[in-house]
Recover the amino acids of this structure.
């Protein structure tokens, strides 16, 4: 099989990421959780068991966000350098750089984390969803 | 109507932003001002009246840039996570993350602002221009 | 000739950069060096002679990386605002913003440099390689 993806798919994946991450950063956690497939898994925290399925992913996100209760912080996930590799089973592996930018009211923004996302993308009937995502943190390497 | 834009347009918008913001950061303010439509509006400062039309936008930019007189600072606007939504009137709404990176001579760069751009894009005869732009600052949220 | 590039090429260049820079940041220096044409040149350090050809580029990179011996640091090159301009000889000039993000173990990431890349891109039989790259550093401007 070919080792390249179409430009069409490359652009669709970029757009998918924009929608997915703006939903998360704007607090629309349910919309974000449903960018994962029904059996999709999300390994948010290194070493912990991944959450599987949109409902478990939603609960994981809500737990993660509790740290910001009483500490208003705007998160922005900037993605960059999207690298796509078709897999034999029809899915697409995606390796992406991320910068997690944090801003507190009246303060200068700071880079909270430099991350690398390892996604497996499912494309069914033109709809993109994640089969899996694991997040690597450069400061933990 | 469809809620999606073509990949062709998505790429053109990315390229438009690159051209538009490199013009601004390189001090070609007139070129930047003419990326707005004749009746295009630019709300640069929260709470202030938006400038309308390329000439007023140019004057607004010149006034804004005065703060850097005698304080050489290279600005770079990094845009990311472009999300496009077609509007009923044929325009396209665009919501984009921005990082404003500032560098002074011999100093390390810093993130001056984490922003979100809310644009309305006009595409006429294949030419992209902005009908409007308003800038939200995360530290003012 | 036309002053625009196709969306197809624009996306291919984005994908090329992702592959090229992930190779570099992951220490696959040889793969990175071979993203340059046989007579391709890379001016990494302002004022120094550019390295010419993949072998010389590889040696330049190895010398550059020596500064991190005994000082584990994860580099991530984020590219943004890709602006492409076709040249009369069939090559494509590319001007791109870069953020060099550095992370040391257990430390918060920092922006090491705000750079602008000036590339000349060769496209032969659908394969993209660099004819030349020079790197401008905002803090040296």
């Amino acid at each position: 099989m070919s080792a390249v993806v179409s430009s069409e798919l490359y652009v669709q994946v970029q757009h998918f990421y924009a929608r997915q991450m703006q939903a998360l950063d704007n607090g629309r956690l349910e919309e974000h959780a449903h960018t994962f497939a029904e059996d999709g898994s999300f390994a948010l925290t290194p070493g912990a068991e991944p959450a599987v399925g949109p409902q478990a992913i939603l609960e994981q996100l809500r737990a993660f966000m509790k740290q910001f209760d009483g500490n208003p912080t705007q998160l922005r996930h900037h993605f960059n350098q999207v690298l796509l590799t078709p897999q034999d089973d029809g899915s697409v592996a995606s390796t992406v750089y991320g910068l997690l930018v944090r801003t507190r009211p009246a303060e200068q923004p700071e880079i909270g984390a430099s991350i690398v996302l390892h996604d497996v993308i499912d494309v069914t009937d033109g709809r993109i969803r994640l089969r899996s995502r694991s997040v690597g943190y450069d400061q933990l390497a």
Q: What stands out?
A: The mean pLDDT of chain C is 95. The radius of gyration of chain C is 15 Å. The longest helix of chain C spans residues 7-25.
